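User: ok so my PI wants both of these folded by tonight, can you help

Assistant: No problem, let's get them done. Here's the first:
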Amino acid sequence: QVHLVESGGGLVQAGGSLNLSCAASGSIYSIDFMGWYRQAAGKQRELVARISRGGSTDYADSVKDRFTISRDTAKNIVALQMNSLEPEDAAVYYCYLRGVSSRIIRVIRDYWGQGTQVTVSS
């Protein structure tokens, strides 16, 4: 089973920075995307950023130019550098992986980390 382990969340002042990291392990045949979602209290979960197998990236408009997603393909690690954090960025951030765990079945599935809390104080 694919296992995602996140680190780097915490409390930061407005204008500060945090770096989130997510390491994927387990049975992985292929990866389409790795990235980050977030969900604030009372709001829907939203895509923050993702990076594809080929290295292309997508960002939510609200974080573009402030957040940067990167990857270490060899280690199946994805990171999110978050700069100029705002109170509106406070949420639980979830690492995700979209991929295939079996070359025989080849069913695309989404895998999720446990979530890490990001709190931004004003």
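One down. Here's the second:
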Amino acid sequence: QVQLVESGGGSVQAGGSLRLSCTASGSSYKTYCMGWFRQAPDKAREGVATIDSDGSTSYADSVKGRFIISKDNANNILSLQMNSLIPEDTAMYYCAAQRYCDGSYSYWGQGTQVTVSS
């Protein structure tokens, strides 16, 4: 079992930056494949970025070149550096973990709101 708690959301103007953090507890963080998801009101949840236990990353086309996912295994913290934010990035952002890197996200955080104004 793992517990995930996000932080770092807020309101920024277009072109600004935010850094989201997700603190994991309850089990060995480095054994998990992790990801960030987001969901805007009345829209489907979408994947934003993922990072595997070996550090390999992937990104949605909409955020490539602007967002960077990373993790600090020593402190069990997953991060998402969000640069050059645009209004379309406005959403609730969630971190999630796969227990066995099998494509199924078993654990989810409570979410942190990101609002980007023009």
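The first strand starts at residue 3 and ends at 7. The two ends are 40 Å apart (CA to CA). Good luck tonight!
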